[in-house]
Amino acid sequence: MPLLMLKDLPRYECLLKAAQAHPELDPSAAEVFLHLLRSGDEVFRVVDRHLARHHISEGRFGVLMALWSSAERPGGDGRQALSPAELADRTGVTRATITGLVDTLERAGLVARASNIEDRRMRSVSLTPRGSALLREILPEHFRRMAWLMATLDEQERVTLVRLLGKVMQRASEEGGEGASGSSDAVPLGAAEVVASHSG
Amino acid sequence: MPLLMLKDLPRYECLLKAAQAHPELDPSAAEVFLHLLRSGDEVFRVVDRHLARHHISEGRFGVLMALWSSAERPGGDGRQALSPAELADRTGVTRATITGLVDTLERAGLVARASNIEDRRMRSVSLTPRGSALLREILPEHFRRMAWLMATLDEQERVTLVRLLGKVMQRASEEGGEGASGSSDAVPLGAAEVVASHSG
DNA sequence: CCTCGGTCGTTAGTCTCCTGACTATCTGCC
DNA sequence: GGCAGATAGTCAGGAGACTAACGACCGAGG
Fold it and tell me: pTM of the entire structure?
């Protein structure tokens, strides 16, 4: 995931200049867009550097966290078992990817697979004691890094940031059916109108 | 890059509950962190779906944009040539990765390599007419999508968002030497103190 | 001249993740 | 009972990114 458009963000004046040649370009929108991608990437790297020291990749961590958070639920303390399909759903990757991730984690002794008697297609994945131990070792520092990163923001700023990001995020995901409906190459929805009304 | 921790963000109450068991966990920091990564990912997907229709990946697009933005500079109109090392620097990937990306782009006829007479180690990469044409075809929709995504935010909100993201981004990148200096497994800087003063 | 350190682009090998196709299994309808 | 369709997990192949190492080349020093 390391790599986002241009490394050093263009100055705003450059965006303004580019907008003259490209009427579709909304300079302030572009600025937000670039800042968002860039800061997400930067923040990700900070925690990824930590996880990498334990040979945990983003994907692996996602699986471990999914199992962990399901174990923290009201039920029993050690009953954390999810099917690969559940894991795929919660981590947002395909089932095929989960197979590979679980393979690696299983080889490392961090998770275990078990068969399901009732439905023989299904398998359940659960944290081993070693997997739990690793998480207990990793998470404190992981949490510390999140807190450290956000320490520049006061509570009010955090609330604002979450609210604004939420608006953008919803906008981005609501357009999920764009590839299936609108299709080939045109503007997904009424995007052209929105832009026109905004820039004109 | 699609995949970020847990797909559906935990509710704030869950974070509060988890914080009881893990004193290092700052709930509001974690919420910002998760929103940031998640929204960055979501936003990225929106533009990536568009680029993918033209068989342009994130990395390829980065190279094209670097060449394009260097061509838009004060100099001549068609003189857009950068060395692979320059491209690596601007897009934030290694020179080895650039070799692969340029290979693909060259095979597709979008860029061309040329030798440098003065320094025979160097080669210059430039957009072909076909590459320029593709960009002219792609960019309007690309810009429209950025504008559409941000259309939920008014100018004031955009300014605020850029400012807050800037603070986090700077924080994240200033810690760049963290792996080299602090090293193996401990807290990078005075992170523990920051957290303590924040949560206590 | 010519060697030495540094830089350039490339190659080789590895890793993660994705897409698409495949096999095994369950379920509902005849 | 037996077959169609959906579903679960896996396999195969590919793209992108990294590190480590290489051969080619420049520039400064003896």
Answer: 0.81
